[in-house]
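Researcher: Structure for this, please.
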Amino acid sequence: MSADDAPLEFPGIRLEVVEDLSPADQDGFLRLRRRRYVAHYPDGTRSEPFVYDEVDREAMDAVVIAAHYVQSGERYVFLRSAVRPPVAMRDRRPLDEPDRGGALWELPAGLVEVEEWSRDGVARCARRELLEEVGLEVPLASLKPLGPNTYPAPGVIGERHIYLEVTVDPRERREPELDGSALEQFGAVVAVRLTRALDLCRSGEIEDAKTEVALRRLLERLA
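Model: Predicted structure, token format:
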């Protein structure tokens, strides 16, 4: 085994919570977690105490679904528009970046509820989100894992993204059921060639990171 093929080893830093400073009586969708930590190092030394802020929520993880089909020899994927308030409310934007009002093109995605945290539960969640956001109903067995989970923003939240792919029949698509959210009203659903979708990622028209990860994985799987 060459040095390049050797297993990657973490240095063995351990975190200890020495004080929980989180605000009490938080009833919002997200909760602020403020803790005082000490880092224990592999040489036996330790850091000075430091405060670290993060957020969490009850449903921590999310599914990301690449629903695709072949038409006239081309592979297509379904995308959905989404308005994201944190993007809309950014104070600073690069000078060459258009202001889209917080709108992004994304693959259908949604939170895994606490009671859905199992292999079958995750598939049920993906099926529900696909029906709500795109208008496609698929059998549970048709949903396939699309690579390992990822942490999209590990410095802020411990959320993981769980990727799945499914082959669909576009003729069976109907109006999305939606989930009652104001942000889902008037959302657009489009079918785009997989290769074009990746071109849109390269050009910056598709800015959503989880969508690009899933699209690249899908192309790699189908190659």
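Researcher: Any notable elements?
Model: The radius of gyration is 20 Å. The chain has a mean pLDDT of 93.
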